[in-house]
Structures are given as C-alpha cells and as structure tokens.
C-alpha cells in the first residue's frame, strides 16, 4: 500500500511540494486549501503531468480534510504573507488561527501522522502545532534549517566555483534574522571553509544567508520563495517516508538541549520513520552559543505573545 501525504495550502509552496512528492513517487498526495477549485485544479494538473514525467501516484485536491484520512505525513504550508501595514503580531495571530485549524483537522483525520511545518513565523507555528496536536515531540518538526543551509551552500559554491554537492554546512537557530550559520563546521570536499576563504568573505556570505528570503522577496516584489522551500520540505518528508535517517537541521522541540526548554529551534536531528529520532547536541563556542541564545529569546518572545493573546 502506497504512503499518503497531505499538503495543507495550495499556494506556491504547497503546490510545489505536491509536484515534488509526486515527481519522486514518494506517496499519494492530497492537496487541501480553503479556496474552492484551486487545490482540485492544481491537483489535476499535477496528476496529468504523470504520463509525461513518468510518475504513477494519485494527486487530488480538496476543500475539506475527509480525503486526507490516514495520512502518514501532513505538511502545513498555509498562511498569510506579511503585508504592508501588518505588524509581526498581526501576522503571528492570523497564522496561528490557520495552523491551529489545520492541526486540529490533521489530528482528527490522521492521528498517527507526522507534522512538518512550513508556515511562518516558523518556530512559533511549530509550537502551536505541538500544543494543539498533543503529539509526542518527535512527531512535530519544522522546515527552516534545510532551506537556510541550502542557501548558505549555494552562496559558498558560487563564491568558490565548486559543486554544491561538495559543501557540507549547517545553519542552526530560528528561521530569520537570528539564524546561526556555523562556518567553523563548514567543509568543502572535507576541507575546512576557514582554509579557503578570508573571514570577511565568510562574514559576507553568512549575512547574505540571513537575508536570503528577503533577497528573493525584493526581486519578486509580490511574493516570496517557493522552489527551494518546497524542495527542503520534501527532502524531510522523503527521509521520514523512506526511513533514510538523514541528519538535517530542523526546528525541533527542545527539552533541555542546548540549555533551552519549551521552544522550537533549529538543531541537527536524525529524521526517520518515527520522525525526529535523535537531536544532536553540538559543543558550541561561546560566540555560537550566544547567537543561539539570542535566536531562542526571539522565539520565546513570540510564544509569550501567543500565550497572552491566544490563551495557549
């Protein structure tokens, strides 16, 4: 029997998740969205690509969650982008309602699923899904570090003129301005990055990584990134569905790891059939630990707002 993945949100990120899942023949896919006709139309379009591309899975769209029954994974991409005049708190509370509803429906129809969160602000939305689902912490995971690390690796490959496949890198912390790339642990074909680039170039690439999402928004003007985010979410889903046990930087619920409790933060984890099978706790330098603490504080600030205004 084939695996089944639900993708909540049929916008650019969600539709591309569905396309990539189908293209890799990882699972049958159900695309869910509140807008009538959009998930059905995009689902049918992706299904009709199958004979050309050579994939043979079911891709359907729906406006309700009944067709999602028994999903192995639910990827939640639905949410509002930040608009002019909208405060961070406004965005936080608007997307809280969306993620809360999606999580409630996911739990109702797929009580054994693993949840992958993509909606921003990512780390706070992971916390919402964890609180609402009441799932064990291994079954709620956020996509951020895979994307941020991919951007970091891309910029390094461009700088050095080498294959992205030769670059091993890790970005920790929250998804946003406070993310923590780790040049000290970055290698190029096994060679430490610090032996290949001067510090000022490394610093510039780290900053470009932090601004990676904003750089794309600046180009697009009316939207944000979706090709790389969908690829990152599907890499996580593939590791779970195939029990590959990839070690990837993901948003995980911390219960004492790295000195933090009760929040989600980007850390290296092993992703397998049961979700997060292990959190790897690295020995950080004082500077790296301070950066991670700063990132954690910004996430906790958002959680405090949710506790006050949403009553969680």
Uncertain segments of ≥5 residues (pLDDT<50)?
Answer: none
* Mean pLDDT metric: 95
Beta-strand percentage range: 15-25%
Order of strands across the biggest sheet?
A: 3-2-1-4-5-6
Q: What is the total number of structural domains?
A: 2
User: What's the total count of β strands?
Assistant: 14
Series of secondary-structure elements, N-terminal to C-terminal: EHEHEEHEHEHEEEEEHHHEEEH
Tell me the structural class. Answer: alpha/beta
Major beta-sheet overview: 6 strands, parallel
Q: Using the coordinates above, name the CATH class of the largest domain.
A: Alpha Beta
* CATH third-tier fold name of the largest domain: L-2-Hydroxyisocaproate Dehydrogenase, Chain A, domain 2
- The whole-angstrom Rg is 19 Å
Question: What is the CATH homology-level superfamily of the largest domain?
Answer: Lactate dehydrogenase/glycoside hydrolase, family 4, C-terminal
Number of helices: 9
Describe the structure in your own words:
By secondary structure, the chain is of the alpha/beta class. The chain has nine helices and 14 strands. The strands form four sheets. The protein has a six-stranded parallel beta sheet with strand order 3-2-1-4-5-6, sandwiched between helices. A three-stranded antiparallel beta sheet has the order 7-10-11, with helices on one face. Helix 1 runs parallel beside helix 2. It is globular and about 55 Å long. The protein starts with a strand and ends with a helix.
């Amino acid at each position: 029997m084939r695996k089944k993945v639900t993708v909540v949100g049929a916008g650019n990120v969600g539709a591309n998740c569905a396309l990539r899942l189908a293209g890799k023949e990882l699972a049958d896919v159900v695309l869910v969205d509140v807008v009538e006709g959009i998930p059905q139309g995009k689902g049918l379009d992706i299904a009709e690509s199958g004979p050309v591309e050579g994939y043979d899975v079911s891709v359907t769209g729906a406006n309700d969650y009944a067709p999602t029954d028994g999903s192995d994974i639910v990827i939640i991409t639905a949410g509002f982008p930040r608009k002019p005049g909208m405060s961070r708190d406004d965005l936080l509370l608007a997307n809280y309602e969306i993620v809360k509803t999606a999580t409630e429906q996911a739990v109702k129809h797929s009580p054994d699923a693993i949840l992958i969160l993509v909606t921003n602000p990512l780390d706070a939305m992971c916390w919402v899904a964890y609180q609402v689902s009441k799932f064990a912490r291994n079954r709620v995971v956020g996509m951020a570090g895979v994307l941020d690390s991919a951007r970091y690796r891309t910029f390094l490959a461009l700088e050095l003129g080498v294959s992205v496949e030769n670059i091993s890198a890790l970005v920790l912390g929250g998804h946003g301005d406070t993310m923590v790339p780790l040049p000290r642990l970055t290698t190029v074909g096994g060679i430490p990055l610090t032996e290949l680039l001067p510090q000022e170039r490394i610093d510039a690439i780290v900053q470009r990584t932090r601004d990676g999402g904003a750089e794309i928004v600046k180009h697009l003007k009316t939207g944000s990134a979706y090709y790389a985010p969908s690829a990152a979410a599907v890499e996580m889903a593939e590791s779970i569905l195939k029990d590959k046990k990839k070690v990837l930087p993901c948003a995980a619920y911390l219960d004492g790891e790295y000195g933090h409790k009760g929040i989600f933060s980007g850390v290296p984890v092993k992703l397998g059939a049961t979700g997060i099978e292990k959190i790897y706790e690295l020995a950080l330098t004082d500077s790296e630990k301070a950066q991670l603490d700063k990132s954690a504080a910004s996430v906790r600030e958002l959680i405090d707002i949710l506790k006050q205004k949403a009553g969680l």
